[in-house]
Amino acid sequence: MLKLFKTLKINLTIFQKLLIGIIALLILNIIVAYVGIISANKLEETSNILLKESNKNSNLQNLKLNFNELLMPANDYLIHGNKVEILNFKKLDDIVKIQLKKSITFEDNHFNEHFLEEIEDILFEVEKLSNSIFELEEPIGNNEGAIMMEVMDRIVLDAQKKIDVLIASSSSLVSSYTSNNQITNTNATRIIISVLCIIIIFLLVGGYYYVKEIIRPIKNLTSIAQKVTSVNSKSDLKKIPTKNDEIENFSNLFNNMVSVLSDNTVSKDYMNSVLHKIKESLIITNLEGKIIIVNKSTLELLKYAENELIGKSINKVLLGEKKIEPITTENEAVQNIFNTYFSKSNEAIPVAFSKSFILDTNNQKTGILYLAYNQSERIDKKTDIKNETLFGYGKIKINEKTPLTNREIEIIKLIVKDYSSQEIADKLFISIRTVETHRKNIMVKLHAKSTIGLVHYAIQNNLT
């Protein structure tokens, strides 16, 4: 198993490792989402059942109470002989019928439905006996009425017992579903927490090894520079301060190597032969951005001859043949960002890109070093991506189809013409708050950090 792991580690590229990590995270997130959806559906289903059972239980309680009250009008009629009790009975009888009908509607258990049919028969008997009592001409002290009343008491008591059985069945079902809800909620919580812990561990461990893979090529270049410097130095080397920034450490070491080589009788051809052994693209410019050194990997990548790049602006590589003013900032370095180089035929080549300043012994800037790792093989050939790196303003993605809406395009055109937010609002008959919202959305969509970035985008896409 260990040998297999080592083999995979050697054969997998950084892109493949990152892709595997992304797929693994996606699967874990799908598991979390699936568990959440299943649990939510289960809770919703049981909640609906609980609501139905609760309504059924409440209706049965009222049915039991009103069934008992059905005895009162006939009993009072035998005591007082007041005909108003007939109306009271009819009202109670209608209420009991409605409640009984609801109970039948709620019920889906065949056994319970049989109970309700028996209760319905009992209600019919109560109606029949009550009507017989109300037909007595002399109800007060009537023995026949008293006998019928006793019969009604017995059958109503029997109906209440049957209703109690239905209530107990409903209460048991409510208790069962409540318990199931708690179990479902507990299990879902445990699964989600477990998966989230796995995701956190995966991010920590995977992130560590991924970053380690990124800085490995830089450390290899640093090792090469150290060997060249130590071999060609005739005097004691000045100790180079070590910083946390790997690319800056390499730049300082590279500068020291150049200094050592210039102090010795090493020819420019020898130095170039060393640079040409570096597999990654390496370009060195002066502070004005004019290219002074390119290695063989760069020439092969961009299909240029050396004399076609030496003395030219770095923008020839970074911007190709686009007729736009480059945006630059001072005192800024970048590490391992996704960028685009342009070949002699203006073909866009995706690269992992780093930029750092070369310092002399007095810590003064003497040039700029550009390192790039070709990413063409790691990007899906069907994807057409063109990225422009605007140092200091982030990256603006330019696709064949603009990411902006028609309204946002109107606003960016007015921004380029130096209209204020209030002037734009007045011109487009919208509120200034709406303008500010559109402006914010535009900045997010274009990955721009200032108005200069928006102007640059407008020029690139002919929106001026």
From TrEMBL:
CDD domains in alphabetical order: HAMP, LuxR_C_like, PAS
Keywords, alphabetical: DNA-binding, Membrane, Transcription, Transcription regulation, Transmembrane, Transmembrane helix
Domain HTH luxR-type: 397-462
Start and end residues of each PAS domain: 267-313
Pfam families the UniProt entry points to: GerE, PAS_9
Annotated SMART domains: HTH_LUXR (SM00421), PAS (SM00091)
Database matches in PANTHER family: DNA-BINDING TRANSCRIPTIONAL ACTIVATOR DEVR_DOSR
Protein name (record): PAS domain S-box-containing protein
UniProt organism field: Lutibacter flavus
Segments crossing the lipid bilayer: 12-37, 191-211
InterPro entries in UniProt: PAS, PAS-like_dom_sf, Sig_transdc_resp-reg_C-effctor, Tscrpt_reg_LuxR_C, WH-like_DNA-bd_sf
